[in-house]
Design brief:
The structure holds 2 protein chains of 2 kinds. Chain A is of the alpha/beta class. Chain A has 2 domains: 291 residues, Rossmann fold (3-Layer(aba) Sandwich), CATH 3.40.50.10420; 60 residues, no CATH class. Chain A is built from 22 helices and 10 strands. Chain A has a 6-stranded parallel beta sheet, with helices on both faces. In chain A, strands 8-5-6-9 form a 4-stranded mixed beta sheet. In chain A, strand 5 and strand 6 form a beta hairpin. Chain A is elongated. By secondary structure, chain B is α/β, with parallel strands linked by helices. Chain B is built from 13 helices and 7 strands. In chain B, the strands form 2 sheets. In chain B, strands 2-1-3-4 form a 4-stranded parallel beta sheet, with helices on both faces. In chain B, helix 2 packs across helix 13 and helix 9 runs parallel beside helix 13. The longest helix of chain B is centred in the last third of the chain and has 18 residues. The model of chain B has no long low-confidence stretch (mean pLDDT 96). Classes of the chains: A alpha/beta, B alpha/beta. At the A-B interface, helix 1, helix 15, helix 17, helix 18 and helix 19 of A face helix 1, helix 2, helix 3, helix 4 and helix 8 of B.
């Protein structure tokens, strides 16, 4: 949709200078990672849980289609209408049709990164449906006309003061409100939208194959309202979110709640199985579920299959030193941070996001905190083989570097060049190196090899 | 504990120490020798291949790995003053040879006898303590990502530093955060790398330390070059082996 060609170098260069955003990102990222550490420390068998998560997810990603079909059959049996979308465009078309068929003009929406992937809001708005985001973070960025910058905390880049300013500007609230007053203002605004909406839209944290249920975690109660008040309900769910049985859910829930926000369980947990049944007083008349593929079946068959195990908890983002230095928008992708740097190129195209696998120091923190042990640094390293064309100089250097005589000459030459400030072949790398640093300084005196030679002769 | 007669170790100098920091190589040799280890230096050695491996040039990385194998396969043990190079040899070589089980086995054997020098002293020589440093300076320690999460060495270097320096050792705040070097990352995204470096240097300044020790000269090349750009005054950046040598020999340099 957007004609902007992502350029991480350019975007990150600007992002690191935005001290307000970086301070806000760090504050919340520190809070989230601190809460996760505490929750994990209080869970004696967390490693066992992680292993369970990974093992179970391997079974699932090994046979995605089987579980998708099983989920679809059981959801239909519970009264839902299940649609399959092979890509984002088809999902958007299906959502528009569901709204149009039912004369839906207004929708209230829960936070969903899958909906972001589909650009669902843009599609529905273009079709004349007014969509209101009801998650507080999403509500904020919708007012600001921004995209989420964190998959779990979408408005992480905004401070309270900035939100207060935004609310004054867009909602006419008094200036400099407290967090509590801001929440109250949003609630007042949203309550009427919930009551008036024709349609409720959500994603799905899990889709349970054996019962056909959609499971949703929330801390604000907005999901409960969005799934019960409007007459039409739509859930947009990636096929990677399916887990085989309701019996799997407690363990995955334990992993997700701890990793996402340091909770043992979210404040609200909604398990939506079919629409309102005869005799029931609450719930939608129709429940539609769009199962989105958008490259997932393809990814499941390739070398990066385990990225589909991702629970979208956001822990890898909050712990990533690069993410913390630049914020989420610099990635210019729906999914930022470590999981996004794997998933975004795989979904949208390696050529579009060739920068992202390189935008990582391979520090390994993400793999350490991932609740289902996705080997993110390994994947990022491997993806570099797919996106990078080794420069000729590196090819030449490789030849030299495994030929001892040439290697030794190269070491001497490098020392001399750095000592004398002669750049030569190293000029391009040195130019980038010296953006923020002085050139490396070789120690004065004899080389190790010379020392070793004299020493062994002396002995 | 088994008690072999004499332990033999082949020093893998690393290209960083080869080109820039001869003192790190010298210190490694002298520290090992002071514990009666017989050290040799295979002169055909080059680089572990990390620059190619981590930029996605697996083909070149394989060539480098094979050369390393040729040079070091017959060694009793291989010791290097660098966690990231050891991590490469230990954890990154063998996966490059999927589908070649015999070769992969040889790389796994190589992996099982390659150590960072601080790790070797702790895990193999089982050195419980080090003597006090003769001229202790206020020192902090940068626990590199590859030390922590690559070779899984936590608290070991810090303990040795405490023994040598006592109260002169000051832990670094936010110690397990990456310094922003990241190999090619440092020149592909120098502004981000620089931002991460600034944070690390800021924490170093907070400790009031005049010496920064680590088990990875690559991080220290980046940090010392940044400290010079920021005019942070005379900070000394050393591999831990250099401080160990000073403590063991009872004199500075």
């Amino acid at each position: 949709m957007s004609p902007i060609v992502p350029n991480f170098r350019k975007a990150s260069r600007e992002a690191v200078r935005n001290s307000q955003v970086i301070a806000a990102v760090r504050k919340t990222a520190n809070l989230l990672s601190g809460m996760m550490a505490l929750a994990v420390a209080n869970t004696p068998d967390f490693e066992a849980l992680r292993n369970y998560g990974r093992t179970r997810k391997l079974e699932i990603s090994g046979d995605l289609e089987k579980y998708a079909q099983s989920f679809a059959a059981n959801a239909q049996a519970a009264g839902a209408v299940v649609h399959r979308a092979k890509d984002a465009a088809e999902a958007a078309r299906l959502a528009i049709k569901i709204a149009a068929d039912n004369g839906a003009k207004t929708a209230v929406k829960g936070k969903s990164m899958t909906a972001e992937e589909v650009e669902l809001n843009e599609a529905l708005e273009a079709a004349g449906v007014t969509v209101t985001e009801t998650d507080l973070g999403e509500f904020i960025i919708q007012l600001a006309n921004e995209k989420p910058s964190h998959i779990m905390a979408p408005a992480i880049h905004r401070s309270r003061a900035q939100v207060a300013e935004l609310f004054t500007d867009r909602l006419g609230t008094p200036p400099d409100l407290s967090v509590e007053a801001l929440v109250a203002a949003a609630r007042k605004e949203l309550r009427e939208k919930f009551l008036a909406a024709d349609m409720g839209i959500t994603g799905g944290n899990f889709a349970i194959a054996d019962t056909g249920a959609i499971v949703l975690l929330s801390n604000e109660g907005n999901i409960r309202m969005a799934t019960t008040l409007p007459r039409i309900q739509l859930a947009v769910v990636g096929i990677d979110k399916i887990i085989p049985e309701m019996a799997d859910m407690p363990k995955f829930l334990a992993l997700l709640a701890r990793s996402a926000a340091g909770q043992t369980i979210s404040s609200y947990l909604s398990i939506v199985t079919g629409p309102r049944r005869a005799g029931e007083e609450e719930g939608p008349e129709q429940l539609h579920i769009i199962l989105l593929d958008n490259g997932r079946s393809r990814i499941a068959k390739g070398p990066y299959r385990e990225i589909l195990h991702c629970l979208h908890c956001g822990a890898c983002l909050s712990h990533c030193p690069v993410y913390r230095a630049v914020g989420g928008h610099a990635y210019q992708a729906v999914y930022p941070g470590p999981m996004g740097s794997v998933l975004s190129p795989l979904i949208s195209g390696l050529e579009i996001y060739a920068d992202l696998p390189n935008a990582c120091t391979l520090c390994g923190r993400c793999a350490e905190v991932c609740p289902v042990c996705v080997p993110l640094p390994d994947y990022l390293r491997d993806l570099r083989s797919d996106v990078n064309k080794p420069p000729l100089m590196m090819k030449m250097a490789a030849f030299g570097a495994h030929t001892p005589s040439l290697y030794r000459l190269g070491m001497i030459a490098m020392r001399q060049m750095l000592k004398k400030g002669v750049k030569g072949l190293m000029a391009p790398a040195l130019k980038e190196w010296t953006v923020c640093r002085e050139p490396p300084e070789p120690q004065a005196g004899e080389s190790f090899r010379d020392w070793w030679k004299t020493r062994s002769h002396g002995q | 504990m088994n008690m072999p007669t004499t332990r033999r170790v082949s020093l893998f100098l690393t290209c960083g120490a080869d080109a820039l920091y001869p003192s790190v190589g010298r210190a490694s040799v002298r520290v090992l020798e002071s514990y009666g280890v017989d050290v040799d230096f295979p002169e055909e050695q080059t680089c572990c291949g990390q620059p190619w491996l981590n930029t996605g040039d697996a083909k070149s990385a394989r060539i480098m790995a094979l050369h390393f194998l040729k040079v070091f396969e017959r060694s009793e043990a291989i010791v290097a003053p660098s966690s990231s190079c050891v991590d490469t040899v230990r954890n990154r070589y063998w996966p490059l040879f999927k589908g070649e089980p015999k070769l992969q086995d040889r790389f796994r054997k190589l992996a099982s006898k390659t150590y960072e020098i601080c790790e070797y002293m702790h895990r193999i020589l089982d050195i419980p303590g080090l003597p006090p440093h003769p001229e202790p300076a206020r020192t902090t320690y940068h626990s590199s990502c590859r030390t922590l999460r690559g070779i899984g060495l936590r608290g070991v270097a810090e303990n040795y530093l405490k023994q040598m320096l006592g109260d002169h050792f000051v832990p670094l705040p936010d110690a397990d955060a990456c310094c922003g070097f990241g190999g090619s990352f440092s020149v592909k995204f120098p502004e981000v790398s620089g931002k991460m470096m600034e944070d690390k240097l800021g924490n170093i300044v907070l400790t009031g330390a005049s010496t920064v020790a680590a088990l990875d000269m690559s991080c220290l090349t980046h940090l010392s070059a940044g400290a010079r750009r920021q005019n942070l005054g005379r900070l000394r950046f050393v591999h831990l082996a250099e401080l160990m040598m000073e403590a063991l020999e009872g004199k500075t340099r």
